């Protein structure tokens, strides 16, 4: 889950709780005030009726055309003591003038006359207007609830997006960062102190990583270069020893094994040196190269090896896949993919090369898929690799593709290893 979504989800949950409590309390408070106003009016009217009753004045009509109406009747002493002297409630009452029942606010009070008798006074007033007011208040509260909720979320989203711009810029920088690239650095002049410190720390870490990377490349390049001469001398000496006619069969076999080991070591050394040169961008002979033509030229060199294992090679070409790159590196790209198809191919299988104007695929039959996450790692060898494989062929392919902005991928489909290169 993104940080923005997490913050907005938690903010929404908090706002729902807070605004709901506010809306409920506000509604109850308003309704309490409305009832208080109605109850005060009923109490005043009831008080005037009680005074008129106690003073012996003539009582008004029970239904005199006003909103307030009443009933006055005598009750027993037990009844008077059993019920509270004054109470309020909402109920449906019969309105004589309208000959129908309507909701009303009712006040019931019990008082004692001078002669010791107890009288109960019931005063009520229709509350149709109060219910209309309740609905109106409730509607406005819901409207304000939704409006406030959306406005607060919008303001928070705007504030979050605006203040988190340095973070999004940092994430984009990290996505585009490549080891050894010193051209772009993070801006350390952002106004937020925490982001400024974070950018400074990342710049320092990237500088240290780049320095270590350059030292590593320099070491690998120097070591590989210095190893070439001793390896060549050792190979020549072993070849000279192998020409000695006094050697028996066992000695000659051991020398041949040693010679093969030195050849593998020489190839490994050359591959490491080539990787180092690619990383250092030491190939400047860039020109348009048609990979279709390169494949056709080099596939003839491998036909004999393919035929030895009964492998058939087919080329399906729609258009020329032309790339601006070093021709020598294009040759390395093509030959390593062809070698890989041979190394990981099955006897009596197929190799299919398909071209479009923007990509090509080279597929070969296989029994089980390679590890897609590690297939381009240096020194990775699948279970079907043959003796003499250095494990650097596909690493060279990936490094060349990255250098010239190409994308290489691996998939295992329908019993075929498929390597795709796209512009």
Give, in spatial order, the strands making up the sheet with the most strands: 6-8-9-11-10
Cα distance, first to last residue?
Answer: 32 Å
- Helix content estimate: 55-70%
Which residues sit in consecutive blocks of at least 5 with pLDDT less than 50? none
Strand content: 15-25%
Estimated radius of gyration: 47 Å
| Main beta-sheet strand count, sense and barrel state | 5 strands, mixed
Sketch the topology as an H/E string, one letter per element: HEHEEEHHHHEHEEHEEHEE
- Count of helical segments? 9
List keywords for this structure.
423 residues, alpha+beta, Methane Monooxygenase Hydroxylase, Chain G, domain 1, Heat Shock Protein 90, 3 domains, five-stranded mixed β-sheet, four-stranded antiparallel β-sheet, 9 helices, 55% helix, rod-shaped
How does this model look, in words?
This protein has 423 residues and is α+β, with helices and mostly antiparallel strands. It folds into 3 domains: 3-158, no CATH class; 193-279, Methane Monooxygenase Hydroxylase, Chain G, domain 1, CATH 1.20.58; 286-422, Heat Shock Protein 90. It is built from 9 helices and 11 strands. It has helices spanning 3-55, 77-82, 128-163, 165-176, 193-242, 249-279, 291-308, 327-343, 393-403, and strands at residues 69-75, 86-95, 100-112, 118-126, 286-290, 312-317, 322-326, 350-355, 359-365, 407-413, 416-422. The strands form 3 sheets. It has a 5-stranded mixed sheet. A 4-stranded antiparallel sheet has the order 1-4-3-2. Strand 2 (86-95) and strand 3 form a beta hairpin.
